[in-house]
Every structure is written in structure tokens, then in C-alpha cells.
Amino acid sequence: MKKVLFFAAALTASLQIYAQKKDSISGKYTLMDEVIIGGVRKSKDVSSELASKLPLKNLENPQVTASVSPQLIKNRNFFTQGEMLKNATGVAPSWAGISPYYSIRGFRTRSSFRNGVNGYVASDMDPANIAQLEVIKGPSAVIFGGGGATMITFGGLINRVTLKPQQTTFADITVMGGSYNLQRATLDINTPLDKDGKVLARLTGAYNYNDTFRDQGFSKTFFLAPSISYKISDDLNIQLDAEILNKTATNNPLYQVALGTAKSADELHLDYYRSFNDNSLTLNNKAVNIYGKVIYRLSENWKSETNLISVNNKTPGDYIRLRLDDNSQNVTRRVYRMYPENITSQQIQQDFVGNFKIGSVKNRLIAGVEYYHYLYGIASKSMNFTKVSAAGTDPENANFNNEYISGQLALKPYGENYKAIQDHYSLYISDVINPLENLSVMLSARINYINNKGTEDLLTATTTGDYTQTAVSPKLGINYQIIPERIALFANYMNGFQPQAPQSVNGQMTNFQPVYGNQWESGVKVSLKKNLLDAVLSYYNIDLTNAVRQNPNDTASYLQDGEQRSKGFEADLESNPMKGLFLHAGFAYNDSKLIVSDALTQGLRPVDAGPKLSGTWYVNYAPQSKALNGFSLGIGGSHYGKDLMINNINGSFYTNPYIVINSVLSFEKTRYVFSLSANNLLNEHYWYGGRGMVTPGTLRQVILSLKLKL
């Protein structure tokens, strides 16, 4: 009944606006078209519109985004999102499980959004249908929702902008081969389905297989992404997309570290090529995500957008953690088998977007309602395998395989078998007004009601931890173009929230309010003529409040007074100073500290905050001479500073700073493109990680590809 009442208001508003359509005044501002990456519009403007869901150019938007642009994607042989994100300013790799994490502005996050709505998958989605990959910086609850099941964190979010059906007919087929038995094939087929071009269809897909430089390990992926757009009339357009993924892989080595003689990953002196794994122990991620969108132009000034999303993920199989024991001299393998892990969600968004004037003041407004249903379920067993020397031979290795592990786990009871359900109901509004032609002011807010129905333990037939919470999230921004369409000063206040489950001690249940993250940010944006320079320089301060911690004076109670601060500076620059030359560079500095925490960590940098310093750069040059027509050469790199895995008053453990260089040489003609690329060109041995675990990075990988444009 609540759902019916919740959306009755949206339907009523839609009908009222529709009834006023005939009375609309001509000559008003037109609404933005659907975002289609075609290489004409600047990638920063595309990111700006998706970040705000409003027709705002980057210079008008007080929020900061970083993007891996279509030009950059075109110039590189990317086949993972992780490689793409090495080109995004302020993003660093974190935990290296089959569901990888990244750190942004001192907080961990994942790649969980697609075209501005939830697009969760247990592993990173194959990038075959990605037109642009963007990072929306800071807490973004007003437009994208709160934390927890909705996958939002306070540092920012990662959003995939996908390819859209086009008016022309084409077919692109790409094949790749490379080091570690890389075998990859992708297709991109587009065609109108009727003579008027009202029904457009596009199909992208990929097959990917690769081994690893280690003694065991592989990954195999099948991916399909069909997309249909049906323009029923000038006012009504319906879009239907799907993403279908089937990925089978061993997980990367995840060494769980402890304080001891070694203070850094390099001091562990582990065998870089050893996996302590077997190719018969795999995880299988199956995902079928469906996206529907209905766009209806209510008048010259208003449109309705309805998003319907269904996400279904199943992940059966084995996840292996390598615990370093005895001062890191020995390794204990712990096997977790999932039967399976299930993650499903359904999301309904109803937005009304307007572009109009009140008197002489221009308004661009979005008002919306949202319902989000999330279910997480898992059944699992686990066991420790015989402890072995980290450096010596493993006499029991022959038994570490699926047959033996299956036999041992069959004798064990389930360690966990439960499901948990959340329902989110939201109302939100954002209005950007122009009191002066070059001055824009953003006023936004969201109210979010969470009904967590608790965790149902299927082993004991009990449900615990149910709660309800309401969160209010404001967002304010101001933007002034000191030189119209060229240089703008901006400032913003942004808020995010994460729901907090009750805690029980000695049978006493304590309820909490949501944890909040509040960001203040200011800076300058530059967009010079002829793409000479596009730049964003910003300083931010994020204060996390209301964190739950155990009472140091009474272990049977909790306090909700924890505080954390994350502040820093970012610079993101992109330039086409001359024909054929493309430059990109980014720098990020982050200073994070636990202000109010427990005695072990208070005043220290939190783990999982990522490195203090990171940077990225890329140069691509295509000679303009007739003799070298079609050739281009690109080279770039990423630097990541020291990253803490353990940090308390007893000591710390960290991954060492490292630099990874990548390069690509390509030759393009009308009907084909040859590319030769090298990831980790200098064969750097490095470690990265998160959640108290470290993983060796991939060594040099040389890739040859051929793209046919039919």
C-alpha cells in the first residue's frame, strides 16, 4: 500500500503537467537531449549532465567530475575497468577481489552505477559497451541516494556511460591477443529496424579469456549488451537495455597481513609468481541486469523520465584468503564456498525535468521520487587448509583442489545461511537558478526513508536487526563565470548518508541514526577555445559524523560520536594544443584522519583511505604528414603513494609507492585499426590492496589487436 501511495503523487503530478501542455508558451528554453557520446560534445559536459541530471555544462556545475573520455578510450586497448580508471584523477586501486574496490577522496567504493542508476554487478562489468567512464566526486546522496545497499560512499561514485543506438548502420569487430594467453573478441553492431529510423538497435558483446603470470589463475568472461530505442512520436521515446554477464575466474592472491618484522609489502619477500591456489577453485558470477526508460516531453519546458531497473546477480564458488602467520613466514589458506551469494534489486525512478523562467530568472529543475528494493542472500561454508611455508615447497599442494575441498566441506555445517532485505523510499529536488547571466546557484535536497526488514537466519529461523531510519540530505552550490564560457569559480556543500544497523550487547539492542558525510569544496574550472585547455582545480574537506564506536568506558554500550576528516587537493587537466596531439594529466593529494575513534586509532590515518599522493598522465600524438597518416603513438603512466593496510598505535603496514607505465602504437584506416600496446611497460613489481590484504600487481602485458569497421 505504501508503494501505491508513494507513486500516486508522481502519477498525479505527471497528469497535471500533461493537462497544461496545450497552454505552454512558445519560445521557452528547450530541454537537453538524451546523452549520446558522439565525439562532438566535451566529455566534461556529458559528465556534468549525468551528475546533476540537468542540462548543465561543466562550467555551470559547482560539482566536480573526472572522466575517462571517449578519446582516451579510443586511443587505448582497454579490456578492464581497472585499467580505464588508472586514467581518472584521484582514483586508486584498493581491494583486489573478484569484486574490486577503488579509493576516492579517502573512502572505498565500487563501480556500481550505469547511466546514473544502479547497475550493480558482483565483479566489474566488461567494458565492451562503455562509451565513457566517469567519477562523480564527493557525497552525492541528493541525486544518487544513500549508502549501504545503494553502494554510495562519501568520496564519490563510479558511473558507466554506455553506448546508445545510432541512426546509421555499422558493425565493428575487434580481436585481441597478448601475454598470459589473452584471447579477446568484441562486437558492436548497430542498425535502424525501420525505414524511418524510429526503431534503433545496437548489440555489443565480448568474449575474454586470460591466464596470469602466476603459477595458477585464469579468468573467462562472456558478455552481451543489447539496446533498443523506439521513438514512438516526437514526444515519446522508449529505451530498453540489458547487460548479461557470465564470468568464471580464480580470485587474485589476497594476503591478509599482520604486524611483525615486515613493515611493508616489499619486506615480506613473498614469491611474486606463486598463487597458493588451484585453477579448479573458481567463482562464477552470473548477472542479468535489465534497464527500461520512458522519456515523454510534456511541453516545450518539461519532460518526464521514468526509469525501471532490475538487477540479478548470483555468485557460487570459492573465495580464498591467504593469512600470513608466524611473522609472515607461513601461509594459512582459508576457503570460503558460497552456495551461492545472491544480490537482486528493483528500482523505480520517476523524474520531472524542467527548463523555464520565473520572471527573468532562468531555472533548470529536477524533481523526483524513487523506490529501491534490495535483497542480499548467502549460504556458505568455510575451512582452513594446512599451514605451509610462505617460501618453501608445499607437500599438501596436490590436495588443494576442488575434489578434495568439496569432500571436506561436505562434512561441515553451513557457517551462514541468511537473507536481508531493504526498501528505500525517496523524494528529491534540485534547482539551478541564474539570478545573473554568468551566476548559477544550485539548491537541492533529498529525504530518504529506509525500511530494513532485518536479517533472516535460515539456519535458526529467526530474524534480527530490523529497523527504520529517515535521512535528510541537502546540497548547495554556487558557480560564477568570471570569463563567460571560459573560466568559472565554484563552491559546493554536499551531503551523503549511510544507514546504521542496530547493535546488540548482552541482549540489549541500541538503535542509531544514519552516519553523515558533509563536504565543502571550492575551486576553478577552465575551458579554453579550440580545446586548448580543459582544467579543474579544487580543494575539498569532507567531515564524517555520527560514526558508531564502542564505548571505551563501557564495553556493553556504543557511542555514536565518531568523526573522520578527509581533505585534499585535486588538479585535472586535458588539452589538444595542436592537431593530432592529446594531453591529459591529473594530480591528487588526500589527508585523512580519525578525529574521534577508539584509543588504538584516534588521530591516525584510517586504513582503506588510499594513498596520500596519486597522479596520472597520458600523451597521444597522431602525425599529420601524408607519409605517417593513420599512425598514432601514446604513452602514459600512473603513480600511487604509500597505502596503509594496518595503522594503529602498535604499528603500521603499507604497500610501497609505485609507478606503472603504459604505451600504445596504432595504425588506423577507414576500415580497420591495428594496435600494439603494453601495460606495465617497465615490468614493475608492485603491491596494492585494501581491507587488510595485499595483492601483487600484473606484470608487463603486451597486446596486439585488430578492429574491422564493416
Architecture overview:
The chain has 710 residues and is mostly beta strands. It has two domains: 122 residues, TonB-dependent receptor, plug domain (Ferric Hydroxamate Uptake Protein, Chain A, domain 1, Beta Complex), CATH 2.170.130.10; 533 residues, TonB-dependent receptor, beta-barrel domain (Maltoporin, Chain A), CATH 2.40.170. 7% of the residues lie in helices and 57% in strands. It contains six helices and 39 strands. The strands form five sheets. The protein has a 22-stranded antiparallel barrel. A five-stranded mixed β-sheet has the order 1-7-8-5-6. Strands 2-3-4 form a three-stranded antiparallel β-sheet, with no helix packed on it. A hairpin with a 2-residue loop joins strand 25 and strand 26. The radius of gyration is 26 Å and the shape is globular. The chain starts with a helix and ends with a strand. The N terminus is likely disordered. It is found in: Cell outer membrane. InterPro entries: Beta-barrel_TonB_sf, Plug_dom, Plug_dom_sf, TonB-dep_rcpt-like. Its main location: membrane. This is TonB-dependent siderophore receptor. GO terms for molecular function: siderophore uptake transmembrane transporter activity.
Distance between the termini: 53 Å
The CATH first-level class of the largest domain comes to Mainly Beta
Residue stretches low in confidence (pLDDT < 50, at least 5 long) are 1-40
Mind telling me the C-alpha Rg? 26 Å
- In the CATH hierarchy, the third-tier topology of the largest domain is known as Maltoporin, Chain A
CATH architecture assignment name of the largest domain: Beta Barrel
**Quaternary structure classification:** single chain
Number of domains: 2
Can you summarize the main beta sheet?
Answer: 22 strands, antiparallel, barrel
The total count of helices amounts to 6
Mean pLDDT: 89
Fourth-level CATH superfamily of the largest domain: TonB-dependent receptor, beta-barrel domain
What class do helices, strands and sheet pairing give? mainly beta
Number of strands: 39
